[in-house]
């Protein structure tokens, strides 16, 4: 059974046995053991879940040694097990791993490097362990700075799993629906003047909160709309919405957990493409290439009151090992010119996807920026309705061909392609070949790393 | 300026320059840089903050090479930079660091080992990155299981820094006070029949919530009362309170972030001493010896609905490197017999502290279990009122002697002694000698590792 989960991924429940034709005995036994030990709240990718044991660059390997081209994982953003990051972690773990109530150069050096990459008004960095904690903290800071509690997010946004972050993550489809302090606006996916409509929707949402007696706190927006089906532009798309939020006294918080660290191919941050200056920027996933490290940058005027009245301490946040991992990731992004690669390989990938789309009516729009692409899967009958069943079938067929992607979007019908930033044009070609094969109802056989 | 922060630690603001007599130029410059880069929400320990660069076992070393005996850090619980843990992290970081939507033996093997150490009814493990996330998730699960939102905690409890966890962490003294769904009860520190009084207080708190229309969700209690000033017993202290919570339909959640992993010297978990079986057990800090890993164990009946309706995914939670780190910590606890050491060295430490207390009227009660001790600092005038100023002075004098501890408690007057579990009797002797010196108004000079 393939279901839907946070950010619309194609997943299945823990206890399901998977496709009986394809199930490997060891995998079925692991699934049963996993259901017994971890319980019912966990989910797995793919009708035939993967048992992975090793990663290297853009490749993942299962227990039988089969290779999978990773077209999906943005956490291992500079490549699985990058030796520079691994050795930075190992060296610092062997030297010191304490916390921020002692002085250490680690958080200071990393904060300086990150702030250098951000617009000037963002003056302070704070460190957490997860993107959820970063967005949760941004919400606490925004409430302290504004005195309000109202949050506006996009319709299928995903911002985290703490209680506070889950409450403004409509992608989770929590029972009970959205709480009284949250409003959603449609992602600016299509139609005329998407930027103008988006700004008007944000203004209307805050007005609606105001009528309900809820003061404005923040407009929180993922700059690449990862779980809304991937929205690339036009550049400037976010400017009006950010201004609409500020006009009522809310902060504009850029959630860069998905779009940050070079993913979109135009500088380090996804919001750069839109010519906006956020009040707070949250970051996470790729920040430590798998080491749990996240954080936020904030304008000093917004943190003054919070710093005086509330304060913040996170036991593992800003620890020297986390800082070493994140510093090593920044090194690799620069040395290997991964932002330029995201732009070039991403453009190549989208061009190849559009070639395939031209010959396949089940593929609709191809969107994306850098190495983050979304491809609509639609019915081929001329009505072009979203077809999540076929999207899941394509994802599972590509997995059988040894290429890993997932789905996204309000209807779960958007192919979500988001490989490590070390993806090269030949990898994109291989991914697209597996897609074509899947569209023809076949698989390609497992790949071998090249 | 020495202030008070979460869990009553003696701290100072980021921008403070520290004791001008003792300030090293480099430290003052780092403090200024830190204030500029990290902003006003961060705090530092000690009037003269420490710039640490290296750790080894029970020793920490500053930038000048001076050694400090660590009598405080429970995260590096099996000793700073333990080689078995460091090599487990390095090896797994070089092999694979993905997430729980793929199958991997790491979370399964660790879950099996942890569940083996817990009472039978706790059937499932879930993994997060921080104790805050674990307590936040416990609250979400408790709400799903009970349908209520009411939380009862102790008066100076600290349970985390997400918005939800901070709301039930009165130690943070947040502006605006406690929200409507939270009630506090005094920690059972003294008086006749503390267990009976504690149970009655918990029952009364839930009754008060009920009168306010708030249904019961959970009674959340740190089994060693770390930020309430350290409460050791009598054994059985928690049983009546847990029963009172269950009688109204609330879950009893044991917060083992402080007391877990052998800290109290009687088995792996702090609640064991009290003969209770929790509905949920949360764990964190020492779990990965500094690697960000945390989690919870839950009775299957409480997670069924949450698993069906809500689900949970944490990007870094349960990743193979976290699991390797936590598994290595369990190895070391067993191989080096650290629970027995916590019991034996802890008993020696408390005996020596009581020897000192007998000769010093400024020291009041000595409490503790295993390697977690609390010593009241009181006025010597016969009234024995809490004396937080003298407690902070003692902590700072001991730091000047090269021994690290902190403070705790409602009044901030409790010396909080919580060293790595590899602390030996000779280290306890050295700590107590520094305390005696501090009580005589002097310092001992920096130590050398023995």
Characterization of the model:
The structure is a homodimer of 450-residue chains. Chain A is of the alpha/beta class. Chain A folds into two domains: 50-78 and 337-439, Alpha-Beta Complex (Aspartate Aminotransferase, domain 1); 83-335, 3-Layer(aba) Sandwich (Aspartate Aminotransferase, domain 2), CATH 3.40.640. Chain A is built from twelve helices and 18 strands. The first copy, chain A, has helices at 25-38, 83-93, 105-116, 131-146, 163-167, 194-211, 239-247, 300-309, 320-335, 338-358, 388-400, 425-439, and strands at residues 3-4, 10-13, 43-45, 52-56, 59-62, 67-70, 124-128, 150-154, 182-185, 216-222, 251-255, 280-283, 294-298, 363-369, 372-377, 403-404, 406-408, 414-417. Chain A has a seven-stranded mixed beta sheet, sandwiched between helices. In chain A, strand 4 and strand 5 (59-62) form a beta hairpin. In chain A, helix 2 (83-93) runs antiparallel to helix 9 (320-335) and helix 11 (388-400) packs across helix 12. The first copy, chain A, starts with a strand and ends in an 11-residue tail after the last helix. The relative contact order of chain A is 0.16. Mean pLDDT of chain A is 93; it is low at 1-8 and 13-23. Chains A and B meet through helix 1, strand 3, strand 4, helix 2 and helix 3 of A and helix 1, strand 3, strand 4, helix 2 and helix 3 of B. Chains A, B: InterPro entries: Aminotrans_3 (IPR005814), Aminotrans_3_PPA_site (IPR049704), PyrdxlP-dep_Trfase (IPR015424), PyrdxlP-dep_Trfase_major (IPR015421), PyrdxlP-dep_Trfase_small (IPR015422). Chains A, B: Its cofactor is pyridoxal 5'-phosphate. Chains A, B: This is Aspartate aminotransferase family protein. Chains A, B: Belongs to the class-III pyridoxal-phosphate-dependent aminotransferase family. Chains A, B: It comes from Meridianimarinicoccus roseus.
